[in-house]
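User: Here's a structure from my thesis project, written as structure tokens. My advisor, Dr. K., wants to see whether a designed sequence matches the one we expressed. Can you design one independently, without my sequence as a hint?
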């Protein structure tokens, strides 16, 4: 009989972005068993309707609850922006839902003052979640937002550290909306994969915040406060699912989790 603390942690995103969060969680909590779902069949989430993203999120949550997860981490800003409340209601007492926006807002709102840029998918920026939540938590912050929809397909295609990525990143960051910022929130879990390039653009003059480490810390606190930390031996291997198998995803997942990684295809609607 597996105790609540020994149950796995479910994590999902549209693709490889959530692996940045999963990896930070594994670093912080090596005894926890992870079940990761990359919804590659529906990638990108950023330009889908709210109803579509909510439907995908519910289907994935069903799978993760069925696998006995104690916590479900929405490792995607787009789904966190539009499906968090719904998932909380849906899971009720069956699992705790943690999203990537709350930990980021908590961290950035604790900054004294300044101009904060936020980049994310069309869905995240259209939801206004960072502007509203940061503005409420710290009214002295000036929030500047920009949707940067080319970044997710670019990253999924492995266009990182090349001429194309440099041009796209330059064009977006030079946008009027992001001028004279002191901080930049990476409001998409794919973006930590280009953090170095973003940092190079700013020559270290802008503080860049990504949600992977901050979400892992938030999860760790939640588990500790609720006696849900798995302190025993490691509970078997992590599991990785995708809704559409691709060799690219497998390569990226192995980059983060090693060559022994098991990747299975799981169709959400079959
Ligand atoms: N990585 C996700 C996010 O944080 C999803 C991006 C996408 O699929 O468009 O928003």
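Assistant: Designed independently from the structure alone:
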């Amino acid at each position: 009989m597996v105790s609540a603390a020994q149950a796995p942690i479910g994590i999902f995103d549209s693709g490889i972005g959530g692996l940045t969060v999963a990896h930070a969680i594994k670093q912080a909590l090596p005894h926890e068993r992870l079940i990761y779902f990359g919804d590659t069949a529906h990638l990108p989430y950023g330009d889908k309707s709210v109803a579509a993203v909510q439907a995908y999120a519910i289907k994935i949550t069903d799978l993760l609850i069925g696998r006995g997860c104690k916590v479900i981490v929405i490792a995607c800003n787009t789904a966190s922006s539009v499906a968090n409340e719904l998932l909380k209601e849906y899971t009720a007492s069956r699992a705790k839902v943690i999203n990537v926006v709350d930990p980021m807002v908590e961290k950035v709102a604790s900054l004294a003052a300044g101009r904060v840029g936020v980049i994310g998918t069309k869905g995240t920026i259209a939801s206004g979640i960072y502007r509203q939540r940061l503005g409420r938590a710290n009214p002295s912050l000036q929030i500047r937002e920009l949707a940067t929809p080319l970044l997710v397909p670019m990253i999924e295609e492995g266009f990182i550290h090349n001429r194309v990525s440099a041009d796209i990143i330059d064009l977006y960051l030079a946008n009027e909306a992001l001028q004279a910022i002191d901080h930049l929130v990476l409001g998409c879990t794919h973006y930590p994969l280009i953090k170095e390039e973003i940092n190079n653009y700013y020559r270290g003059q802008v503080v860049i915040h990504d949600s992977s480490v901050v979400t892992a810390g938030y999860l760790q606190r939640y588990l500790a406060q609720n006696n849900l930390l798995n302190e025993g031996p490691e509970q078997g291997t992590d599991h990785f699912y995708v809704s559409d198998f691709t060799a690219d995803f497998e390569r990226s997942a192995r980059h983060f989790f090693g060559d022994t990684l098991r990747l299975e295809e799981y169709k959400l609607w079959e």
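When you compare it with your expressed construct, this may help: The mean pLDDT is 95.
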